[in-house]
Amino acid sequence: MNHQPSHPTDGPICTSVQRALLGLTIPLETLQVVKNRMLQAMGEGLSRETHAQASIRMLPTYICSTPNGTEKGEFLVVELCKKHVRTLWVTLQGDGNHSPQVTQDIFDMPEDIPQGTGEALFDFIAQCVQKFLTDISRLEDHLPLGFVFPFSCKQTRLDKAELISWSKDFSCSGVEGKDVVQLLQSAINKQLKNVDVVALMNNTVGTMMTCSVEGKPCEIALVVDQGTNSCFMAEASLVETIEASGRMCVSTEWGCFGDDGSLNDVVTPYDQHVDEESSKPGERRFEKLVGTLYLGEIVRHTMIALATEKAVFVESNINVLKTKGVLSTQQALEIIDEEEGMAKARSLLEGLGLRPSEPDCCRVQQVCRAVVSRAAALCAAGLSAILTHMCRSRELECLTVNVGVDGDLYQGHARFREILESVTALLAPDCKVTFVPTSDGTGRGAAIVTAVALRLVAQRHEVDQVLAPLRLSRDDLKRVQGLMRREMDLGLGQETNATASVCMLPTYVRNTPDGGEQGKFLALDLGGTNFRVLMVEVGADGIRMASESYVIPTAVTQGTGEALFNHIMECIMDFQLKQDLGDQVLPLGFTFSFPCQQLGLDKAVLLTWTKGFSASGCVGKDVVQLLREAAQRKQHLGLKVVAVVNDTVGTMMSCGYDDPKCEIGLIVGTGTNACYMEEMHNVGTVEGEQGRMCINMEWGAFGDNGCLDDIFTDFDLVVDKKTINPGKQRFEKLISGMYLGEIVRHILLALVDKQLLFRGKPCPKLQTNDIFPTKFLSTIEIDGLGLRKVQAILEDLELQASFEDSMLVREVCQTVSKRAAQLCAAGLAAVVEKMRQNQGLDQLVVTVGVDGTLYKLHPCFSQHVQQTLKDLAPKCIVTFRQSEDGSGKGAALVAAVACRGVKL
Ligand code: BG6
Ligand code: GLC
């Protein structure tokens, strides 16, 4: 291999030289080991558990695709380089990036800037931008700017990047830990009005983008300059520090490789000295073996060591070599030159006041060669690690890939280039690599990234416009609370009840449980996701229950009333058989979760069906009577219905058994509704002034009189129109499980239509009604659920979702469920505030018993309800208690009291 040193043979002097050269030469087997360690370190940087301690940070860049050639427009780019700032004006033609127009300027940086204050640095960059725009007469234009910033940053968006730490020669104060996009934007704002920093990228990323042209994507980039770094298109599912699918460019920040000691067996004493003299000893060990900031220094320290051992410069005073920087990397590279190198070495050494012999010059040249060759070989080991990682993660036998390369070493030095390429071929034999040197630096790539960022900004604006009507302000919610309160008052009033959208139905339940209830009961629970039959035994020592769930087919819920109640009877009989109840006639409590005009505890006239039920011949009839008739039809004689309750009431009673403060029942499931204990003197629709009565609000119908019209969005209107009861249950249709999935589906369709989702491709399956159930929201919104799971859900719907698509779908779900939770809280706020005022309290302490799949299973619904309620009703301390056993238990408790003949 041509990076092996040649072996001088003249005596003991040369033994030292030989040893030094050998130390600087890494054998192929060791390079293989370095590669494997690098692979392992990459894995650690990508893994969620080990990322924080990993030596290689593997930073996500939020760049999810290589350019596709459609990028078009005019962009401003500013690049922070080692000693200067480069400004560019790039015009992309949308022609596959073959012929970008680039105008550029370079501004030398005053020497004190890299070690000065952050403010001075960013002010200087802003001045460069200002001067450039003045020179090209574009001061007045509104300009998007891409910022190439070659330091390690924790990026959370294209335009948000916290500097992790300075490297190379930079150490400006007050920048580490800050968002550098913001810092640059603030500095620019001091001088210019129209420039927006829309994207920040590492220079490797700029290189990768620059080297990509249509049809020939470049998926890896390597920069070997003062410092060194690389980036590549990683499988996003392996980047565990973010939730993404598809691919994302990862900046490896491999300069820090070895900071955990993993290069110790490669590092020489000369490298140790270089490290000790650097601004951050112990850090960026790999970079210090590879970057041009250090190569000259390594040569210098090798020469010092050799001179001390009297292997070179025997007749010279070598003190001059002890000064940092007397030999630059550039000079070392000139010395390597086959033809001129020896002469260069001589003139340089003499220039330093040394008196080199011919062999001295030769040895210095060998050292320079060894140092540069080693840098190239180490880069090759790193690159091979990336190649192998990509090959494995893409499950390929052979990876064919273009690697963009930037930096003086590769561009200007054949030796470095040859070794990098040949060693890479040896270490990653499965990969076909084409090296693509950048032609005009990173500027064009930065312009492309800026174009992508701009497209995202424009998209964001459009998405916000679509979602804005669903985002409710605090004022909106306050207004809803006020309207609910008004409707409650109207509903309770004898004369006004007919005009109210909230019916405020009396339930004839006058007390919450007191623990004295006893007996064995049957219970039915109809109207939620499941139809259940239960046996409930209430004893002094607590409650025992047995239950069975039954499916009621849609054909039955939407068929005839007779068929529906026959089906219910069949289920009861099946249950009695299974429970071995024989001829026992148990009193029955019936949870019937639909609006009923209650004429007594055991007499409830169905006012209207809701939640997709529409069985004929039931509305206007007493449902207890309908059940009894079905029993007769089935010749079942042992049915004794003693109480009918709404599920809200059942839930309140059920939770009230364990918590006497539970005076409100809330359901957020298939439908939504609430009940609460109201003062009799406020209930104009029932005779009597004394005591209290539970009121079934039937708040699902809130807004059916038009009072919420300005809250409804176009999506809500479409969803409503397609239900079997259009114009009815308007509040419920904003909140409950039966409808949220549909709202989301319609929003997604609108986003596709506007080309903001799924690349605007038609989605036939998504056109199907109810194909996106609300349980999807509950899954998609789980915190920490990888977006690939989201992608899997969407795949079932035949939707190919990119990273951005999955993020957007999640955002839509979040927006819809959050609005639902907030509206629910606004309703509750009206209830608790009314109860507080009823009782003339400064502070009300109350418990809400809650049930329903949406409330229970959605990852953030309950939290949003509680937070919003706290905000809207700050004088009420409200505890939420989830009902564990369903509302059948509550129905049995009501039945228990009815059986005792005690007025509930
Ligand atoms: C159940 C109750 O737990 O929750 C029912 O027992 C109630 O009475 C139901 O109707 C509401 O939730 P969902 O999600 O089943 O409609
Ligand atoms: C519907 C019903 C109501 C029930 C609620 C929750 O709104 O009309 O009675 O309480 O759904 O299930």
UniProtKB/TrEMBL annotation:
Pathway the protein takes part in: Carbohydrate degradation; glycolysis; D-glyceraldehyde 3-phosphate and glycerone phosphate from D-glucose: step 1/4; Carbohydrate metabolism; hexose metabolism
GO BP annotations listed: glucose metabolic process; glycolytic process; intracellular glucose homeostasis
One example GO MF annotation: mannokinase activity
Domain of life: Eukaryota
InterPro entries in the record: ATPase_NBD, Hexokinase, Hexokinase_BS, Hexokinase_C, Hexokinase_N
Top EC class for this record: transferase
Residue span(s) of domain Hexokinase N-terminal: 19-212, 462-657
Swiss-Prot/TrEMBL catalytic activity: a D-hexose + ATP = a D-hexose 6-phosphate + ADP + H(+); D-glucose + ATP = D-glucose 6-phosphate + ADP + H(+); D-fructose + ATP = D-fructose 6-phosphate + ADP + H(+); D-mannose + ATP = D-mannose 6-phosphate + ADP + H(+)
Annotated SUPFAM superfamilies: Actin-like ATPase domain (SSF53067)
GO cellular component, one term: mitochondrion
Sorted UniProt keywords: ATP-binding, Glycolysis, Kinase, Nucleotide-binding, Transferase
E.C. designation(s): 2.7.1.1
Pfam families per UniProt: Hexokinase_1 (PF00349), Hexokinase_2 (PF03727)
Domain Hexokinase C-terminal: residue ranges: 220-452, 663-897
Family: Belongs to the hexokinase family.
Function: Catalyzes the phosphorylation of various hexoses to hexose 6-phosphate.
Name of the protein: hexokinase
Origin species: Patagioenas fasciata monilis
